[in-house]
Amino acid sequence: MELIRKNIHMDRVKCRASTQITLEDDRNVPDQKPDMERMILQKGRIAVDEIKPSEDHVTAKGKLEFRILYMAEDGSVNRMDGQVPFEEQVYMEGVRGGDNVETDARLEDLTIDMINSRKLSIRALLSLNLCVEELYDEEIAVDLYHEEPVETKKKQMTVTEIAIQKKDILRFKEEIEMPRSYPNIDEVIWDDVRIAGMNFEALNGQIAAQGEIQVFLIYEGEGEGGAVKCFEKIIPFREILECQGSTEAMIPDISWHITHNETEVRTDFDGEERVVCLDLVVELDIKLYEEEQMEALTDVYGVSRDVQAVTRQAVFSRMLLRTSGKTKVMEQIKLPVGAPDMTEICHSSAEALIEETQLLEDGVELTGTLTVEAIYLAEEGKGLASFRAELPFQYVLEAPGISGACSYDIAPVIEQLTVTAMSSSELDIKAVLGFGLLGFCSVEEDTITDVIISEPNLDAIRELPAIVAYVARDGDDLWTLGKKYYVPLEQIRETNHLSGDTLKAGDKILIVR
Length: 513
Prior knowledge:
Layout: E1 2-28, E2 36-54, E3 57-72, E4 77-91, E5 101-116, E6 119-145, E7 150-177, E8 185-203, E9 206-221, E10 228-242, E11 251-267, E12 273-302, E13 306-334, E14 342-360, E15 363-378, E16 384-398, E17 407-421, E18 426-454, H1 458-463, E19 467-471, H2 478-485, H3 489-496, E20 508-512
Antiparallel strand pairs: 1-6, 2-3, 3-4, 5-6, 7-12, 8-9, 9-10, 11-12, 13-18, 14-15, 15-16, 17-18, 19-20
């Protein structure tokens, strides 16, 4: 006899850890920059430069990259860039040197205040989420090759295999020509380029990525006393990546982040500075899963000889659910006391942060904050100004069957954002947040590793009656009876004119050996 086995390729989390880092620093305005009168905008991002694993520890090195836009005392609009380095050692039980540590670095909070016209105070809170995943294989017996009379029992089983795991990049090179109603560009003072609504689809031999590039620029127009102008544009995209082996039936689980973001101004055909060139590089961490249904061998017995199955417990991954939901966030906000009045909103953006998740029965309660920022044209003589509002949200995402034993990720997406001026000091904010959840569970199953054949206990067999009239009880089936009396299942079916193997309590079964 020989077991026919199938290999299942899966992934699992080996270890994970999280920590928060507080950064505080003061920075002086460079000598070549004019004195500050008031700040207009601030922006920051976390760049992780090095992740070094060792025995039960990970050392993370990186920097906070910050940028501010300010109104100078001479009435000009200026930008200041800077960096605050950090190094943190994180305890991570189970990690070893050489492990590939996936890092999710998030800027939870950034506050930049003016100490005086030449000095800034910088305070930031960032979180580091570290995870090590490993691939593993499990073998499952799906059939038994045999020449002597043997009965086999099987059951339907669903497993989720990792079919493809790799890294790739998306590169966007876009050219935007300024509309004729806008002046030529003398200098770009501020640029904010984002990718929104990114989603992925597995195709045959390919992966499709779809979303939009949101571009916002503040620039100084050409000529003496050039006015400061705001410009924004949305560029939709659908990109195709080659991915050998992928199929439409596969389930994508793809994370991404921007690793390079450059904006450059070039001349048009007339030699005028009117073309904005974007160069974006997006790194993708690609996983494609494949669900497979199969018949697993769960038990065997012999008719003429004793056949015993040797089993062990194996752990299989199974996709529990893939679901999504939406919620609305709406609020009316007044400008802070002392902020200049609005005449026109130039640009708005938002970021959603899930701060807490709580498992409910068949759902996950999400609590978080939607941070909305808008740039507006202030009352006459005040130039540009901005406001920032934090709107709390709470939403229950339906997730039937989810439990604390499941592993899942929830990705928030801002699907719609509208910021409208209701008056010179009041705004109406409306947003639609989307949430996607991909959840997996681990299932322990007894799998057959070997089959042991031995001569039967003849004395025990002789004691078995040649004919048995059996009245079924709860939980009985033909398999149990056939195995007990060394009788083929088909023989019991034919004797009792049965089409299946299930029995109800009280059924009368005749067993002839």
